[in-house]
From TrEMBL:
InterPro entries per UniProt: AAA+_ATPase, ABC_transporter-like_ATP-bd, ABC_transporter-like_CS, P-loop_NTPase
Ion transport among keywords: no
Residue stretches making up the ABC transporter domain: 5-236
Keyword Cell membrane found: no
UniProt keyword annotations, A-Z: ATP-binding, Nucleotide-binding, Transport
Designated name of the protein: ABC-2 type transport system ATP-binding protein
Pfam family, any one: ABC_tran
Location of region: Disordered: 303-332
Family: Belongs to the ABC transporter superfamily.
GO MF assignments: ATP binding; ATP hydrolysis activity
Amino acid sequence: MSPVIEISGLRKTFRSLRHGRRIAVDGFDLRVEPGQIHGFLGPNGSGKTTTLRALLGLVRADGGQMSVLGARAPYDLPRVAGRVGAIVESPQFFGNFTAHRTLRLLALAGGVPTSRVDEALDLVGLRERGHERVRGYSLGMRQRLAVASALLKDPELLILDEPANGLDPAGIREMRDLTRSLAATGVTVLISSHILAEIQLICDHVTIISDGRQVAAGRVDDVLAGFDRHEIRVGVAEPDRAAELLRGAGLAVETYPDHLVVGAVADPELIARTLGEQGVWVRELTPLRPDLESAFLELTGAPTDPLLPRQHPGEPVIDLGTPTHPATEVDA
């Protein structure tokens, strides 16, 4: 099947009198297949929102090729616009309008049956408050309304830029459940978010951008596998003696006040056997698995504290990542 979204070599440069020329996207590639919940990640200023705006025809790209649902973007987007729902950045609404009136006007303007208004409000949990004025809404409620506006068309492709912004933990979980239920019906979802733990929970594929370029892409499990150092957290009553014994067996050991971290261990049994034979009993053997946050920080070159103690699985601390290749100049 053809990809739902395909971007190849996207380039975008901005100019201003104050800052001169700034490269926002520098040869970026993205591919989203049908039925995926695809996470789109990157630090602030890495080019995420610029990429989405270019894909939807909101800014003009300087180079590259893009397609949405088989239509060349942005030139042929009108042909598929009715099959795409999107929110980019923070949509603005008229404060004196109710949520119901806001969506009704959007439905009428877009040729969408007005019966979809109540359905969309119900999907995001706003049906009971749909007749309240938007100016009284919290940030989280406004975000729900934005998602409802993207769902009006009953889209095949849903593009969400920071959909959990302003939501409390319960709202984030509801948004996660909604996204999964939409994907179960065949909707393809592209999510840009800063909440990396949430992306890891909900997405099956991910693309990471840094300095305007793709630095990782693929199944979440495959991306994380590249950062697995096969480390084991070891809890013992005699950490200093245990460290000496393990180093004597040729193992790399890092010591912390209440535990050890043993690296590059193919079989944790080697640790237990080495210590047990010398009467040092092990109370904990826990594999330290990489998570999306640690991989993201390393890929994007974000600083971490190397003195911070290792965490339990799902919260490993990484060393300083290698900075990504700097963006190069492009012709406008």
